[in-house]
């Protein structure tokens, strides 16, 4: 008991610096902005008020829904594919390799500028790009496949490419805690590989999967540069609406209101995703927590 | 099977980077096939471009400061969280997730409001604050599961055996969580180095590399942006190798020290 | 070159000048920490009165920082220029609004931003034109000198320096010659058209196509709606929006598009470097003129060097060089003589009046109005247009 409270006190002391940092640079500004979302504004001049105008204006514009749907779609597809594609690789790194070379090789790919990578995908996917030229030279197609570029496909593919190393990092970190012995024990008890995966591994790294999914989701759904450069006509997302308010129109309160609405949509996705994992029985039941 | 998959995965990651690298040596300003020939002109161009070199240096500064600050704050927090239980832990966990739950530009603008309220002029310092805020949740997420399962009793056993808290940390905790923290620190550097959306708002006169690349791209897209990307990639690899060497060296001396302790 | 004394007089840095004090006062709530940081960010010795030299903080578009053109001048006067790059005009006021504006000695604004910057945001210092001796009716083209874009109420707010025309650009291999905007609706251009996401440079053309050109920027809400509805068929031809000039150039170079609605006149020069021939055409509807001007932000400190910099920027020699570099037009009458044939041929300097008549320098929609569609509403309509609701 004594040891426990010493532990707690030490714990509190250790989190204090971050807490102060987050208090000053996150909670206070976010609160300022939340208050601001009820204000009115006129080209960069804020008028203190208490009004729901900004929220009702955003919710009554059909455009807001379409763009938010685009953003959520990008985010969900990217997150799902990133986690699904990275999981086998994370498994390989954790259980089949000794050194960290492969792991670092993958992480390093992240250091090439993300803006530049967007243009590299154009070179690959374009009408006269690598894929189309190759396919045409092989005689497999007569006309370039135009839907490769400037489509949701291009956006999501690129976002997956950007997020993969990141998802991998989080999954590797989560899988490192599923000790080999547990897996071996499950196998010895006659579990099939599928059962090992769904009954042992997934429930044990459940938080890591949620983390990887949510971080990937939030970043890719909030991105508005990639969709704009690669998404073609359907390439607009809510981010650009918000950015417009802050940068050119100067209606910060309206932008803040839209940002909070987007946050609400993100939270909804979070709860749905967690619920889904529970329904699929991939989340740990009570037995792991007690 | 799995091995083939993993190599395909790596190939997918590196294919665009191979293209970027190839075109950074292109003799023509075009970024499309056919490839016409090799030249170093784009590297020459960025090396002589003072705006570019300044922003590269600024990005390195900010990235390093961000990684260092985030690592200190994040490691303390992670170790603290491992000692906390129940509601406090959940609440703080949620709080630390906050900065990335909001769209990036939201953070940028919220910080600008704060900075103008307290009269803090925008500079690389404010960029660093914003980047720490942005990277901290990632750092915590990357080390969290490692630390959550970290057996605190190991550290406490060391304390019971007479080690000071610092010794217990250095000799017991660090070797266990060190590699994870190293990875997370690199992650923080990478996130900061490539951050664009928040930086637009919180930067002062000194621009960072992504901002410079963005403005270069707005006028005309040339292979100079590829050269910039390849250069920063090579620099990062260099930094990571250096960091890896340091970690390796430290670990070796820690092992030696421990061996010596045991002998005595 | 203007005669300026070199070196700086001695004396304590005058950080308690009134304007500084009033700015600090404006912060009101400034904490000790914040104020300290603000003080700390000031460079050591303050630039003295009537002395050129020291560091000059400017904010300009990529390619417009006079990095090469003013090399000699910088060395002769011991000036270090520290340039921040503008990606969109919004970057400039983003730095200057709020309680703690970033120090900038000079920055650029495009046409249309003058009243917004001067009257609404109040981020512009009036200029003492006597300190820019090159800015005289003898040197500057009359259409630019004292235009209402930078001069009103007997006050100069900015110095115009480079201009250009945005109009149609097309790839002759992929389409018939385009003489009018209607030609963009040809079936062969389906999925081959792009718009450049440059609002101020595109809106006037949207109004003009609807026959409302002369009224721009003051269109009623209904007129604006009509104008955007008329643009529907063009949108259906469109494959993607170019996010900037650079993006449009890259789209032309990879032959993803055959034509761009309204874009920078320098586009063909850049695509030619990338092996794709494109043609810049001013169709019968005219083009959209832009002009960038230097202004002195409220946070300017090294003002004398700022004035000297502007004075150099509009000298004939520098104008000729920068116009070649950015494929732009000069405001200095004597610059065309010094240009190479290609740069001179970009615009009809012999009859600028006609150029102005066909492609007037127009402002931007009002920020507030009960009668006309506001800037906000235009932005909204443009966003809706881009996402086709």
UniProtKB/TrEMBL annotation, chain B:
GO terms for cellular component: plasma membrane. It comes from the Bacteria. The keyword tRNA-binding does not apply. SUPFAM superfamilies: MetI-like (SSF161098). The chain crosses the membrane at residues 7-25, 56-79, 91-114, 120-140, 168-190, 228-249. Belongs to the binding-protein-dependent transport system permease family. CysTW subfamily. This is ABC transporter permease. It comes from Ancylobacter mangrovi.
TrEMBL record, chain C:
GO terms for molecular function: polyamine binding. Keywords: Periplasm, Signal, Transport. One of its GO terms (biological process) is polyamine transport. Pfam families: SBP_bac_8 (PF13416). It is found in: Periplasm. Transmembrane segments: none annotated. Its main location: periplasm. GO terms for cellular component: periplasmic space. NCBIfam families: TAT_signal_seq. This is Substrate-binding domain-containing protein. It comes from Ancylobacter mangrovi. The lineage of its organism: Bacteria, Pseudomonadati, Pseudomonadota, Alphaproteobacteria, Hyphomicrobiales.
């Amino acid at each position: 008991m004594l040891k426990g409270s010493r532990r707690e006190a030490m714990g509190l002391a250790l989190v204090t610096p971050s807490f102060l940092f987050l208090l000053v640079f996150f909670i206070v500004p976010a609160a300022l902005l939340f208050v601001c979302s009820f204000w009115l504004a006129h080209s960069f001049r804020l008028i203190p008020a208490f009004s729901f105008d900004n929220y009702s204006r955003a919710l009554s514009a059909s455009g807001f829904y379409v763009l938010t749907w685009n953003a959520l779609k990008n985010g969900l597809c990217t997150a799902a594919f990133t986690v699904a594609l990275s999981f086998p690789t994370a498994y390989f790194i954790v259980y089949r390799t000794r050194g960290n070379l492969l792991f670092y090789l993958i992480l390093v790919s992240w250091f090439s500028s993300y803006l530049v990578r967007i243009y590299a995908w154009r070179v690959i996917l374009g009408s006269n790009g690598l894929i189309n030229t190759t396919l045409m030279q092989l005689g497999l197609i007569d006309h370039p496949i135009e839907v490769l570029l400037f489509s949701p496909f291009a956006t999501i593919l690129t976002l997956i490419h950007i997020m993969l190393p990141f998802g991998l990092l989080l999954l590797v970190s989560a899988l490192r805690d599923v000790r080999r012995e547990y897996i071996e024990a499950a196998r010895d008890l006659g579990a099939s590989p599928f059962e090992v995966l769904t009954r042992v591994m997934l429930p044990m790294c459940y938080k890591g999967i949620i983390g990887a999914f949510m971080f990937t989701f939030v970043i890719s759904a909030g991105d508005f540069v990639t969709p704009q450069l690669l998404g073609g006509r359907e390439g607009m997302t809510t981010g650009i609406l918000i950015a417009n308010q802050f940068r050119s129109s100067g209606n910060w309160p309206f932008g803040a209101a839209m940002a909070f609405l987007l946050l609400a949509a993100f939270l909804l996705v979070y709860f749905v995703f967690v619920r889904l994992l529970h329904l699929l029985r991939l989340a740990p039941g009570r037995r792991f927590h007690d | 099977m799995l091995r083939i998959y993993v190599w395909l995965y790596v190939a997918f990651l590196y294919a665009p980077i191979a293209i970027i690298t190839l075109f950074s040596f292109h003799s023509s300003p075009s970024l499309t096939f056919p490839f016409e020939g090799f030249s170093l002109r784009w590297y020459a161009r960025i090396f002589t471009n003072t705006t570019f070199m300044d922003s590269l240096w600024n990005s390195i500064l900010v990235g390093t400061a961000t990684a260092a600050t985030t690592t200190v704050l994040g490691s303390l927090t992670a170790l603290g969280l491992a000692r906390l239980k129940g509601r406090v832990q959940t609440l703080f966990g949620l709080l630390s997730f906050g900065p990335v739950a909001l769209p990036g530009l939201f953070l940028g603008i919220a910080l600008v409001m704060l900075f103008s309220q307290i009269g803090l002029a925008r500079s690389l310092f404010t960029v660093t604050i914003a980047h720490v805020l942005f990277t901290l949740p990632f750092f915590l997420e990357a080390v969290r599961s490692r630390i959550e399962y970290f057996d605190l009793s190991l550290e406490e056993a060391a304390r019971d055996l007479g080690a000071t808290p610092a010794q217990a940390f250095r000799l017991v905790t660090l070797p266990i969580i060190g590699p994870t923290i190293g990875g997370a620190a690199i992650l923080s550097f990478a996130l900061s180095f490539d951050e664009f959306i928040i930086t637009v708002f919180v930067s002062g006169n000194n621009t960072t590399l992504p901002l410079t690349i963005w403005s270069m791209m707005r006028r005309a897209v040339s292979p100079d942006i590829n050269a910039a990307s390849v250069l920063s990639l090579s620099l990062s690899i260099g930094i990571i190798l250096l960091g890896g060497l340091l970690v390796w060296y430290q670990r070796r001396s820690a092992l030696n020290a421990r061996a010596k302790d045991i002998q005595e | 070159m203007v005669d300026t004394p070199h070196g700086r007089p001695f004396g304590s840095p005058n950080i308690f000048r009134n304007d500084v004090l009033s700015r600090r006062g404006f912060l009101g709530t400034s904490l000790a920490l914040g104020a300290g940081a603000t003080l700390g960010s000031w460079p050591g010795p303050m630039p003295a009165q009537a002395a050129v030299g020291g560091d000059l903080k400017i904010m300009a578009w990529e390619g417009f920082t006079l990095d090469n053109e003013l090399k000699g001048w910088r060395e002769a006067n011991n000036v270090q220029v520290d340039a921040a790059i503008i990606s969109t005009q919004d970057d400039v006021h983003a730095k200057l609004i709020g309680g703690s504006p970033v120090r900038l000695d000079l920055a650029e604004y495009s046409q249309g931003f003058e009243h917004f910057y001067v009257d609404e945001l109040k981020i512009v210092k009036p200029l003492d034109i006597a300190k820019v001796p090159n800015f005289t009716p003898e040197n500057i083209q009359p259409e630019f000198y004292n235009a209402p874009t930078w001069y009103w109420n007997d006050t100069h707010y900015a110095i115009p320096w480079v201009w250009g025309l945005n109009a149609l650009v097309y790839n002759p291999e992929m389409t018939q010659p385009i003489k009018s905007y209607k030609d963009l609706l040809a079936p062969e251009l389906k999925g081959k058209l792009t718009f450049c996401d440059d609002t101020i440079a595109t809106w006037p053309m949207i109004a003009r196509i609807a026959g409302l050109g002369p009224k721009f920027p003051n269109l009623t809400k209904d007129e604006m709606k009509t104008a955007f509805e008329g643009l529907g068929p063009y949108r259906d031809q469109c494959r993607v929006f170019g996010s900037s000039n650079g993006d449009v150039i890259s789209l032309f170079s990879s032959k993803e598009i055959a034509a761009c609605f309204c874009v920078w006149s320098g586009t063909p020069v850049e695509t030619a470097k990338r092996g794709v021939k494109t043609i810049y055409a001013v169709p019968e509807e005219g083009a959209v003129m832009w002009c960038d001007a230097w202004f002195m932000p409220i946070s300017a400190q090294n003002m004398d060097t700022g004035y000297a910099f502007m004075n150099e920027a509009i000298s004939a020699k520098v104008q000729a060089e920068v116009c070649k570099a950015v494929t732009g037009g000069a405001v200095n009458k004597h610059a065309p003589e010094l240009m190479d044939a290609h740069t001179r041929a970009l615009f009809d300097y012999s009859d600028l009046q006609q150029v102005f008549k066909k492609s007037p320098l127009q402002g931007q929609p009002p920020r507030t109005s009960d009668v006309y569609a506001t800037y906000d509403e235009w932005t909204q309509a443009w966003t809706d247009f881009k996402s086709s609701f």
